Amino acid sequence: MKTFIATAALTLGLAGGALADPVLGTWKTQVDDGNYAHIKMAKCGDKVCGTIAKAFDASGPIQTDNVGKKLVWAMVPKGDGYYASGKIWQPSTDKVYKSKMSLSGNSLKVSGCVGPICKKQTWTRVN
Hints:
The chain is mainly beta. 13% of the residues lie in helices and 57% in strands.
């Protein structure tokens, strides 16, 4: 019985690790209005959200009230590295866009639209 319980616990533990969402972790944005950020992607219930973990300019880390704020929220995993139905905030314009993301290895293509105006960035995983 002890062996069965240990085997079941190990199997569930391995399955849980295999089910971890590959987009989770920290991502570096592209430069926008002279600044960029590290975004910490995490689970928000059954969705994915991203919070500004650090901010930078050309000289290095900067202090800003945006650190700690949500940049991405309500992103729904659709499978195969695709996420949709989310929202993304652009700090430089204070606009919120309907957003989707597509993950390929250590690159995350992020796009957002407000009406006919769409913007895109490719973020890179921070190791």
